[in-house]
Amino acid sequence: MSSSLSETMKKRNQVSSTTSKKTLNHLLLLSASFLCFQLMWKFVASEEDYVSQLTILNEEYRQHLEIAAASQKPPLTLKQANNLFRNR
User: Fold this and answer.
1) Can you tell me the distance from the alpha carbon of 81 to that of 83, in angstroms, rounded to the nearest whole number?
2) What is the pLDDT of residue 13?
3) What residues contact 85, with CB distance under 8 A and at least 6 apart?
4) Per-residue pLDDT at 44
5) Which residues of 11-66 form beta strands (DSSP E)?
6) Radius of gyration of the chain (CA)
7) What does the alpha-carbon distance between residue 74 and residue 70 come to, in Å, rounded to a whole number?
8) Contact criterion met (CB below 8 Å) for 59 and 51
């Protein structure tokens, strides 16, 4: 009987160990997924900020450069101003 009890305890420990490993792996995977999600969220937020800043530059600064290019002493020619903002 004691050998059967010993075998039962071994099997229980093996199952418990396997379950613990699976649980740990699952938790590590969830943690890594959460970190990836946070990283992607920060990336998207920083890209939105970057696009917002570029939009301001394009709408405000370019307009002033184009107006200044038509003046008597322009800081830049219209061609130079257009070269700064080629994506338009």
Assistant:
1) 5
2) 66
3) 58, 62
4) 95
5) none
6) 32
7) 7
8) no
Q: What is the pTM of this model?
A: 0.50
Backbone angles phi, psi at 74, to 5 degrees: -70, 145
Q: Give which of 58, 51, 55 is closest to 82, Cα–Cα.
A: 58
- Taking a C-beta distance cutoff of 8 angstroms, is the pair 65, 75 a contact? yes
Structure tokens at 8: 């039962």
pLDDT tens-digit readout, 35-64: 999 999 999 999 999 999 988 888 888 778
Rounded to whole angstroms, the maximal C-alpha distance in the chain is: 106
- CA 55, 59, 64, 66 torsion: positive or negative? positive
Number of neighbouring beta carbons within 10 Å of residue 66? 15
- From first CA to last CA, the distance across the chain in angstroms is 85
Q: Are 65 and 84 in contact (CB under 8 A)?
A: yes
